[in-house]
UniProtKB/TrEMBL annotation:
First and last residue of the signal peptide: none
Superkingdom: Bacteria
One example GO MF annotation: DNA binding
Protein's name according to its UniProt entry: LytTR family transcriptional regulator DNA-binding domain-containing protein
Ranges where the HTH LytTR-type domain occurs: 381-483
Keywords: DNA-binding
Presence of keyword DNA-binding: yes
Higher taxonomy: Bacteria, Bacillati, Actinomycetota, Actinomycetes, Pseudonocardiales
Region (Disordered), start-end ranges: 1-20
Length: 483
């Protein structure tokens, strides 16, 4: 696997052969001084909208307002002793460790350190220049420390776990002042099924910048590891569909199969009718490919699936049920979940509608209340955009990326996943009308019927913005709009 990764050039060209850079180089430039002033103002409680890269500013907001990270922290805390994720992703970590060791040998001459973390930001391994590693250890940048944003603020590893693609954090862009002499570049490896991060790889350099070639190298390195994640997703889907086919003949009523992320892989005729999936041909046949799976718009289902997966670990005979509004506008329907287990790991769930068997699910309303934002944060070009919920007409999902359609144009949400955005905006009058769309009911201007009876919402009568409404959501939407 590592043979496919190109050579790594970590250091920019230097005028001298010694390989050292003058002290303070990362904070001496005018742009770095501007970021440092913005950091001082922001940490003091002011809002900043420009002068700092949007992905960094979004991270600062998380660190200050959500995680409340102490900016005077000078060492990373120790990580919690939970090895569940290590067991689940052992093959992935082995491949990533090989890449880390390979990169460590290449960057040793440039005074850099390569680190690999799990999806929680816990450092699993470190390679590179021995003197740089000793300096990094002063900040506890070493195995079994936690470098998530929640624990240690804006940094290459933690911030990469919060967003897709490579991220660089240089000098005063770090949330904690003690790390302002470091330049970091990191990238997360994400589960193709759940979209959540499972690991990250990061390159750090003390008091010296990183070359422009580091981010492309990280992208190519991660692509090699993600091939293994994709192969695992295909294998798991095949097992889930096989189990679904075995049980389907024994079930009376709607029945469907989901992957670990709650995406629907297969459904019988009754479930297809109930969920309005007649046009989803891959679901009827069984969706092996991750991109062909149906992203459910049943409110609360992703949380129930996560709960069921946690409860079923180590117990293939477990079952549990929840009551959810499967059909909008109607009473909640009971759903019973049973795990599909392969080699002691939950790889999917079988769901029977109208059945209550096993352990009952109880939601935690405090978690939802705690997630409400002071503002909605979006990103556009080189700016962070602070939005009042009333400014947003609707949100549209493109897989895990969510676009906010506003008076100020199309803006990418800082939060990933439509479920997360829905949780934030529901208290402000937003409702899911389609598996890909969330609308502000106060901003609906007109309704229009299609030639086949489809319902569309016109959010702006001037531009004739059309938002499709799924058949399942149409009755409830009419009731809420009074039409």
């Amino acid at each position: 696997m590592t043979g496919k990764v190109p050579p790594l050039a970590i250091a920019p060209s230097r005028p001298t052969g010694r390989g050292h850079v003058a002290d303070g180089s990362l904070v001496a430039t005018s742009s770095a001084r501007e970021v440092a002033r913005a950091w001082e103002n922001f940490a003091a409680g002011d809002d900043v909208e420009a002068g700092v890269r949007p992905e960094i500013l979004a991270s600062w907001y998380r660190c200050r307002d959500r995680y409340e990270v102490d900016r005077t922290l000078n060492v990373a805390p120790g990580a919690r002793g939970d090895d569940t994720q290590l067991i689940d992703n052992g093959v992935i970590f082995t491949a990533l460790g090989g890449l880390g060791a390979l990169a460590g040998r290449e960057v040793e001459r440039d005074g850099a350190v390569v680190t690999v973390t799990d999806g929680d930001g816990r450092v699993l391994g470190s390679w590179g220049d021995p003197s740089a590693q000793r300096r990094a250890e002063l900040h506890n940048l070493a195995p079994w420390s936690s470098w998530s944003e929640e624990c240690t603020g804006t940094n290459g590893m933690g911030t990469s776990l919060e967003m897709s693609g490579p991220v660089t954090v240089t000098g005063p862009e770090h949330w904690c002042e003690a790390f302002h002499q470091w330049a970091c570049a990191g990238i997360s490896i994400r589960d193709v099924v759940t979209g959540s991060p499972v690991a990250s790889i990061n390159i750090s350099r003390w008091n010296a910048s990183l070359s422009e070639f580091v981010s492309p190298w990280l992208t190519k390195a991660v692509a090699c590891v993600e091939q293994e994640i994709y192969r695992r997703a295909i294998y798991e889907a095949d097992k889930v569909i096989s189990e679904f086919n075995k049980k389907n003949s024994q079930v009376h009523g709607p029945f469907m199969a989901m992957d670990r992320g709650g995406n629907v892989i297969a459904a019988n005729a009754a479930a297809v009718t109930l969920l309005g999936l007649a046009d989803e041909a891959p679901i009827v046949a069984g969706a092996i490919e991750p991109a062909e799976r149906w992203i459910s718009d049943i409110s609360g289902l992703p949380d129930v699936v996560r709960w069921a997966k946690d409860r079923a670990q180590g117990n293939a005979q477990w079952s549990g049920y929840a009551s959810l509004p499967v059909c909008p506008g109607e009473d909640a329907t009971s759903l019973t979940l049973r795990p599909v287990v392969v080699s002691n790991h939950v790889v999917g769930m079988l769901c029977s509608f109208g059945v209550q068997e096993g352990e009952p699910y109880e939601s935690n309303p405090d978690e939802l209340a705690g997630a409400l934002p002071r503002r909605v944060i979006g990103m556009r070009n080189d700016r962070l955009v602070l939005l009042a919920p009333s400014e947003i007409r609707y949100a549209e999902a493109d897989r895990n990326i969510v676009w906010l359609i506003t008076e100020r144009g199309r803006i990418q949400a800082a939060n990933r996943g439509l479920d997360n955005v829905e949780r934030l905006l529901t208290p402000f009058g937003f409702r899911r009308v389609h598996r890909r769309f969330l609308v502000n009911l106060r901003r609906v201007a007109e309704l229009e019927r299609g030639i086949k009876g489809e319902l569309f919402l016109i959010m702006d009568s001037r531009s004739h913005e059309f938002v499709p409404v799924s058949r399942r959501h149409a009755p409830e939407l009419r009731r809420m709009l009074g039409v």
